[in-house]
Every structure is written in structure tokens, then in C-alpha cells.
């Protein structure tokens, strides 16, 4: 009992294994709540940087939060140390896709293997996104090793990159999956100060809530992208359509922004993982297969648009504005920019790229010969076309008087509808948005302003 108090009482240290996006934000949020946190990562360089006060990626507000609560967070390269010191340990390691599309659980397995014999009491909290059934498998492994004093809780994470600190400290909901409701109380109580709807359920359902939520959001995006493609053919404006649909509270306005496809480390991976999970259970998830296909085609539609406008792409200079998979992050995992760059370079185009957050080292992820620009005007100077790939607000600077004149041909493909046709045309561009009617008309502009 005294050991229970030391390891799991209000003053106890909390462990986090995996110091990536989710791990560092979890650690910072727990420290903000006044807890002492020990955070482990197998990446030595990452731990050294964190000890020196450096955050290994760009996430608004995270560096400040970590700095503010630095005295309560320690970093280690030894996950086993975390289990010695903490009675509640969050697992936040990555679960990347295998070539089959299934999640690679090797990192999760190595964390479970690092739990020392005889440890306890311990609550192991899974925040990594894992296939349904992972909790049951981990339970079996723990039991086989005689680790009966280790409780297992699924506590999926719903944060978005770019707004992660806000999402974790102001959650919509906290899902706690467990076999024993007493375990739920411990985890729900930790997050209670941040508010949000708390829901307790079984482990498998908690695991499915995470996968189904990401798959549903991705479905919304592919749906609106299909609507956009039809809008272009029939003369409607997808921006206006999405707004009109969103006024119905059953549909909701969010995740109806048409564009050139979803990317990032999670939607592509988790949609595929859910489809594979269904397939392995003997069920063919047709809808998700279509969601993925629509997204892949959407990423490539810009290439066809540019060919229509420019003809042969050989020798054409094309500026890609934005490399990150969305604004507010420097993350390029599964970003549309990479797919586009490869397709355009394969067609013989010369690429000039810019992103306000991604470092120039990202050139290594792009085709050989890609040119790095330090600013928007430098990127578009002499270009035959520019594509807004990521809707960084900085790219509204394209509207500054005289800017379009820097281009060899002022063709602007706005892959995220960052601008309106009216303002882009007034600034001198030939503007091609997503899901837009071919010609300018007075009425839609008035509606869109409202
Ligand atoms: P990440 O790649 O940014 O970080 C994972 C970290 O875990 C890395 O620093 C890696 O070195 C470390 N690691 C790997 N194996 C380890 C081990 N055995 N012991 C200790 N550390 C180890 O990943 P992430 O983006 O934070 O994602 C983590 C999990 O959370 C994934 O399952 C992801 O799907 C899920 N998730 C991510 C987000 C997001 O926006 N990034 C949101 C919700 C859920
Ligand atoms: C997404 C989910 O939103 C989070 O809830 C979840 O926790 C996370 O995945 C995860 O599991 O990792 P994230 O990938 O950080 O978060 O970013 P989103 O804001 O969801 O955007 C994902 C992609 O969808 C981006 O490429 C974005 O441009 C695209 N998107 C988003 C659209 O094309 N249209 C939209 O309306 C919204």
C-alpha cells in the first residue's frame, strides 16, 4: 500500500515513453497540471536536445510550455528507468505503416518488453494509435510474464499538429478504455482539469473510436473533394456549398475544406490501417478504399491542370508554395507537396519550393535539382506557374501590388482556396481554385464575403 501511494498518489511521478509530438505534448500538459514527469526516448540525439531545452520540431506553444515547466520534466534514454520511477506510464511511441498498410507495433512491443519483472502497481496507458485488439494482446503478454499488477488502459489521443497544445488542454472528449472501471478513474482524473466529455468503455471500443474518428474525418475530406470536382464541371462554388452544408448541425462545418488531398502522419496511415484491420477480420471496407483512391487522385489533379494550361511541362519553372502537410507545422510526412513535386519533376518541370516553417534540409525529400527559395516573391520570380500547396496565411502576400508581375506567366493554382478568385484576379493572376466555377460572377463573391 505504501508503494501504491509513492507510485500512484497525487505527488507521484508520471512516465511518458516516446518523446515525439504526442509524447512531448502529453509530458508538457501533465507538467502544466503540476505533475512531475519522466520522459524516455530511444533517440539519444533527441534526448540530448531536449535536455538542452531544444524542441526537435515546430509546434506552436510547445517550446514555451516545456520551458515554463522544465523543472518538473526529466528526460532519459532508458525506458526501463521510467517504469522504476512512475506508477502511471503513457506509451506514445510511433506506430508507422508496414508495407502491407497494417500498423507496425514493434515499438509498442519493445516498450512492453522493457517493463521490469515484478513491477507494480503500474497503470500502462496506451496513447499511440493501435489496431483494435492490441490491448487484448498486450494483456496476454503481461499475464504470461506474471505482470498481474500492471493495469492496461487505452487513452487515444485526438490532437492535431499545429494546434496540439490547445487541443490537449481543451479536449472535446477524453476516451478511457479499460477492463476495470477503477483503472478508468485514475486516468480520467488526470485529464479532468482540462475539461471535455469523459467517456469510459471497453479497450477494443476505445481503440476503434480512434481509428473510426480519423477515418470519418478523412471521409469528409474526400467527400467534399469529390463535390468540388463536380462543382467545377457544373458551375457551382464548393466554398459556398460547404458553408451551406455546414449550417446543418447534423453535418457540421468542419473538415469540409476542399483541397488537393489530406496528408500527414495519421490520416493516410490510420485509414489504411482500419481498412486492413477490417480485411483481416474478413470484411471488405469499400467506402475507405474509395476515400483513399479519391485522395490519391486529388493530389495529382494539379498536374493535369498545369498540363492543360502550360502544355508540355519540360523546362517549365513551377513554384510550390508550402511543403508541410498543413499550416502550423514543419511536418512533411505524407504531404501532398512531395507527391506533386515528384510528378512535376518526372514531367520535366524545374521546381522552386518555399515553406515558412520547413527547413532547407527538406530538399533531401524532394527531387534532385529542386531550388530552395527564401521567400514568396523569390519563389515565384520568373515562374511559369505557382501552386499554393499549403494554406499558410503568409501566402496572402501574393496579393501585394506588383507581386504577380514577378512571374513569367501569372498562373496561380490555389490548391487550398486560400484566396478568392476576385482578389487574385484583381492582383493580376490567372487564378484556378479547387471546386470553383470557371468564370467570375458577382453573386457568389457576395455570398462568400458573408
Ligand atoms: P513521433 O514519431 O513524433 O514520435 C515517436 C517517438 O517515439 C520518437 O521520438 C521515437 O524515437 C520514440 N520511440 C520509438 N520507439 C521507442 C521506444 N521503444 N522507447 C522509447 N521511445 C521510442 O510520433 P507521434 O507523431 O508523436 O505519434 C505517436 C503515436 O501517436 C502514433 O501512434 C500516432 O499515430 C499517434 N498520434 C499522433 C498524432 C499526431 O498528430 N502526431 C495525433 C494523435 C495520435
Ligand atoms: C488528424 C486529426 O485531426 C486529429 O484529431 C488526430 O489526432 C490526428 O490526425 C492523428 O491521429 O494523428 P492532423 O493530421 O494533425 O490531425 O491534422 P488535420 O488538421 O486533421 O489535417 C490532416 C490533413 O487533412 C491535412 O493535410 C489537411 O490539409 C487536410 N484537411 C483537413 C483538408 O484537406 N480539409 C479539411 O477540411 C481539413
* Gap from first CA to last CA: 62 Å
Please write the CATH class name of the largest domain.
Alpha Beta
Number of domains: 2
The level of helicity is 40-55%
Give me the number of helical elements. Answer: 17
What are the segments in which pLDDT stays under 50 over at least 5 consecutive residues? Answer: 1-5, 442-450
Structural class call reads alpha/beta
The CATH superfamily of the largest domain appears as NAD(P)-binding Rossmann-like Domain
Structure description:
This protein is α/β, with parallel strands linked by helices. 46% of the residues are buried. The longest helix has 32 residues, at 203-234. It folds into 2 domains: 10-201, NAD(P)-binding Rossmann-like Domain (Rossmann fold, 3-Layer(aba) Sandwich); 216-449, NAD(P)-binding Rossmann-like Domain (Rossmann fold, 3-Layer(aba) Sandwich), CATH 3.40.50. Strand 1 (13-17), helix 2 and strand 2 form a beta-alpha-beta unit. It has helices at 2-8, 21-32, 44-51, 62-68, 79-85, 106-113, 134-144, 164-169, 181-191, 203-234, 238-246, 267-280, 286-310, 336-346, 376-380, 421-426, 442-449, and strands spanning 13-17, 36-40, 73-76, 88-91, 122-126, 150-154, 173-178, 197-201, 317-321, 350-354, 371-372, 385-388, 411-414, 430-432. The N and C termini lie far apart (62 Å). It contains 17 helices and 14 strands. It has an 8-stranded mixed beta sheet with strand order 3-2-1-4-5-6-7-8, sandwiched between helices. Strands 11-10-9-12-13-14 form a 6-stranded parallel beta sheet. Helix 2 (21-32) crosses helix 4. Uridine-5'-diphosphate-glucuronic acid binds at residues 129, 157-161, 214, 217, 221, 255-257, 259, 262-264, 266-267, 325-326.
Amino acid at each position: 500500500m505504501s508503494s501504491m501511494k509513492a507510485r500512484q498518489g497525487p505527488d507521484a511521478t508520471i512516465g511518458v515513453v516516446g518523446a515525439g509530438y504526442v509524447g512531448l505534448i502529453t509530458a508538457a500538459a501533465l507538467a502544466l497540471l503540476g505533475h512531475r514527469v519522466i520522459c524516455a526516448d530511444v533517440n539519444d540525439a533527441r534526448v540530448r536536445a531536449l535536455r538542452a531545452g531544444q524542441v526537435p520540431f515546430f509546434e506552436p506553444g510547445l517550446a514555451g510550455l516545456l520551458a515554463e515547466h522544465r523543472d518538473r520534466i526529466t528526460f532519459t534514454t532508458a525506458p526501463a528507468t521510467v517504469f522504476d520511477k512512475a506508477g502511471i506510464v503513457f506509451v506514445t511511441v510511433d506506430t508507422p505503416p508496414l508495407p502491407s498498410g497494417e500498423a507496425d507495433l514493434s515499438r509498442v512491443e519493445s516498450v512492453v518488453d522493457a517493463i521490469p519483472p515484478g513491477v507494480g502497481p503500474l497503470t500502462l496507458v496506451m496513447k499511440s494509435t493501435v489496431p483494435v485488439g492490441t490491448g487484448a494482446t498486450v494483456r496476454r503478454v503481461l499475464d504470461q510474464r506474471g505482470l498481474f499488477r500492471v493495469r492496461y488502459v487505452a487513452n487515444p489521443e485526438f490532437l492535431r499538429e499545429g494546434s496540439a497544445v490547445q487541443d490537449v488542454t481543451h479536449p472535446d472528449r477524453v476516451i478511457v478504455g479499460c477492463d476495470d472501471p477503477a483503472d478508468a478513474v485514475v486516468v480520467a482524473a488526470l485529464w479532468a482539469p482540462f475539461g471535455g466529455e469523459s467517456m469510459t468503455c471497453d479497450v477494443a471500443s476505445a481503440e476503434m473510436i480512434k481509428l473510426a474518428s480519423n477515418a470519418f474525418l478523412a471521409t469528409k475530406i474526400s467527400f467534399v473533394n469529390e463535390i468540388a470536382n463536380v462543382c467545377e464541371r457544373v458551375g457551382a462554388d464548393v466554398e459556398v456549398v460547404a458553408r451551406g452544408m455546414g449550417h446543418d448541425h447534423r453535418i457540421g462545418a468542419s473538415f469540409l475544406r476542399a483541397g488537393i488531398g489530406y496528408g500527414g502522419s495519421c490520416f493516410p496511415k490510420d485509414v489504411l490501417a482500419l481498412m486492413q484491420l477490417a480485411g483481416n477480420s474478413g470484411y471488405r471496407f469499400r467506402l475507405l478504399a474509395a476515400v483513399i483512391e479519391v485522395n490519391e487522385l486529388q493530389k495529382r489533379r494539379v498536374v493535369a491542370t498545369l498540363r492543360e494550361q502550360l502544355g508540355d511541362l519540360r523546362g517549365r519553372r513551377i513554384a510550390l508554395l508550402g511543403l508541410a502537410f498543413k499550416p502550423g507545422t514543419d511536418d512533411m510526412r505524407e504531404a501532398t507537396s512531395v507527391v506533386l513535386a515528384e510528378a512535376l519533376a518526372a514531367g520535366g518541370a524545374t521546381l522552386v519550393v518555399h515553406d515558412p516553417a520547413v527547413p532547407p534540409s527538406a530538399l533531401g525529400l524532394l527531387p534532385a535539382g529542386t531550388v530552395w527559395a527564401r521567400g514568396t516573391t523569390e519563389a515565384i520570380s520568373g515562374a511559369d506557374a505557382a501552386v499554393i500547396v499549403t494554406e499558410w496565411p503568409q501566402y496572402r502576400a501574393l496579393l501585394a501590388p506588383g507581386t504577380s508581375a514577378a512571374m513569367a506567366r501569372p498562373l496561380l493554382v490555389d490548391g487550398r482556396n486560400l484566396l478568392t478568385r476576385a482578389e487574385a484576379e484583381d492582383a493580376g493572376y490567372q487564378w484556378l481554385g479547387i471546386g470553383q466555377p470557371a468564370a467570375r460572377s458577382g453573386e457568389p463573391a457576395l455570398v462568400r464575403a458573408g
